[in-house]
Amino acid sequence: MAAQPERKYRLQYRLNMIRSILIDDEVHCLNSLSIQLNEHCPEVEILAKCTSGVKALEAVEKMNPELVFLDIEMPNMNGFEFLEQCRQITFSVIFTTSYDQYAIKAFRISALDYLLKPIDPEELVAAVCKVGEQKSKPITEQFRLMIEQIQNRNRGITKIGIPTIEGFELIPADHIVYCEANNNYTHIFLKGKTKIVACRSLKDMEEQLQDFKSFLRVHHSYLVNLNEVTRYIRGDGGYLILADGTTVNVSRGRKDALMKFLDLPA
Fold it and tell me: Which of 11, 139, 207, 262 is the most buried (most CB within 10 A)?
């Protein structure tokens, strides 16, 4: 059952219909999504159901939707190519996908909404709630960042995109010395004593950097590039001394993982 805030949202927005287009090359997926929306999200008005990117471009131009449900893996023109062909992206997008785990991570990094097939009704309601609360927002910058994340992965590029208040910073992962939690933000300390404030929690940063094997969460407040560690000082949890002279506490619960990673005796 949907959470209480979602029920409240559905009452609030029932009269403010969200004009939507569904795009998927598989007819049964379109029909299934349509049925789920009618049943669980009656505030979503379905303007059109399109089985190709070409038809979808015509529908978007003609109908000016507020929300597009977009499949990614389509022949001839996939979901990404469809967005690249749009003159303007003035609508919200919820991707529907069976994509691999790295692409899913790219969605999360870019703060783009996605639903994994087969679509779970509660996740569908939550995604629509989010659109209703935020209204329509252009996703051009988020989409660009997501594509860069995927392309960089395919090319072996080790830069990551960091969302900041001003936009996005693209930095090599190995330039990061350590990350420190600050409520829902993260302070990222780089070589050369520079700092970036990321609009992302430390947990999100840990997930973003998990493919780079040198990063380890050593404390609830710290994520460290262990290539930058010069000394470990024993203690209850102990602490690390980094190459730039910074000391970082190690929590007792994460000490064993650190010792194993550094191949040190416990």
Answer: 139
One-character DSSP codes across 118-175? SPPHHHHHHHHHHHHHH-----HHHHHHHHHHHHHHHHT--EEEEE-SSSEEEEEGGG
pLDDT at position 229 is 94
How many angstroms separate the CA atoms of 70 and 74, rounded? Answer: 10
CA dihedral 11, 16, 17, 18 (to 10 degrees): -100
- Biggest CA–CA distance in the chain, Å, is 67
> In the predicted model, is pLDDT for residue 190 greater than 90?
yes
Q: What percent of the chain has pLDDT over 90?
A: 46
Indicate if the pLDDT at residue 266 is higher than 80: no
Is the separation of the CB atoms in 108 and 115 below 8 Å? no
Of 140 and 79, more confident: 79
| pLDDT at 105 > cutoff 90 | no
> Given its phi and psi angles, is residue 156 left (phi above 0), alpha (psi -120 to 50 degrees) or beta?
left
CA atoms within 13 A on the CB side of 223: 25
Q: What tokens does 62 get?
A: 């003609």
- Please list, in sequence order, all residues whose beta carbon lies within 8 angstroms of the beta carbon of residue 8, skipping any fewer than 6 positions away: none
Reduced to 3 states (helix: H, G, I; strand: E, B; else coil), residue 259 is helix
